[in-house]
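Lecture 7 notes: from sequence to structure.

We start with a single chain of 428 residues. Read the sequence below before looking at the structure.
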Amino acid sequence: MDFDLPSDLTNYLAELDAFIAREIAPLQAADDNERFFDHRREHARTDWDRDGLPRHEWEALLHEAKRRADAAGHLRFALPSEFGGKNGSNLAMAVIREHLAAKGLGLHNDLQNEHSIVGNFPQVLMFRDFGTAEQQAEFIPGLVEGHRALPFGLTEPDHGSDATHMETTAVRETRDGVAGWRIHGEKMWTTGMHVATHCMVFARTSGKAGDARGVSCLIVPADAPGVEIAEYLWTFNMPTDHPRVRFVNVWVPETAMFGTPDEGLALAQHFVHENRIRQAASSLGAATYCVEQSIAYARARKPFGKPLAANQAIQFPLVELSTQIEMLRLMIRKTAWDMDRMSKPEVAQKLSDKVSMCNFWANRLVCEAADRAMQVHGAIGYSRHKPFEHIYRHHRRYRITEGAEEIQLRKVGAWMFGYAGPHRIAGE
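Now the structure, written as tokens:
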């Protein structure tokens, strides 16, 4: 068994580092752009008088960083070559995401809003695999080039992680001789709706509450009559781009159906494993950053005439975190490597529990690492002069949003005890 990373991947990490030094770091340093990374100045990113939304200047800076990354051939790395990408593997994306996050916060990789110079484009592959020819022609280039944005309208106020008890409905209705669907309901955490051109709205089209079948996905223009932003939900880490959205008798034509009618939840699950392993790698990288910063500080700080690092009370918690980081890194890379040797259906059938293990443990670990970094740094670590409280506030969300921790644990438990997965016990 060879644990060495492929040379083309390690060479690519060096290429990314050179690009960051040449293009991204100077952009971050220019025109007072550092204000967006000054942890004391949350208001630099947040327009408090505009519902707490991201400031236009902040999002414009992110757009420029992505434009430069795309021009240099990095942004689309994970996409197939047919879309201008480099056919990046799951292993490569996990290693890259960990590498970028381990550098700390910066314009190269700011996970508060899923920004990275190496992008993640799950919806492009959704349109490739489920879209009509017309949808592919409009949305694939639109998503890659940035002039189409489609938030997910899946989660509902009263059901959270349960997408099967969906109260949003879509019923057939013909208007002016055109067959279509009338949508009525409400969605929560429809991230990115403030800049959306459309929204992927999941609605029950048949069946009864609790049925997995009978939920469909429809592409709704964001400016369609009846689409209403009810409120933007302020969060632990601001700014917010997470609204509650009402769809009040919104009509769309038949061509708005995305994928097979009544099989919409297959779309929602299409990229979940890739997303979760990459997000786990990002949390791993951020945890590594917190530990390494704590080690450096403990060696330099000398209260009572000796380095903090000489105290076992400082050493031992960091030793435990470092041990967990090493073990988790191996598991993430092994799981990503296995994913690259399987089709999507095979991953869902054979590796789903391993992906969940990586994801829930990485998200828990980064919170523990950020908390320990605050403790090692003392009062300055708790302050906004250091990034640890920001890292904690951001990554705490992933114990809820990227498949809640309890959902991940439930899946692993079901596979372990034969209630689901490849070793399911008949009749259970």
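The CA atoms of residues 40 and 266 lie 42 Å apart. Keep this in mind for problem set 3.
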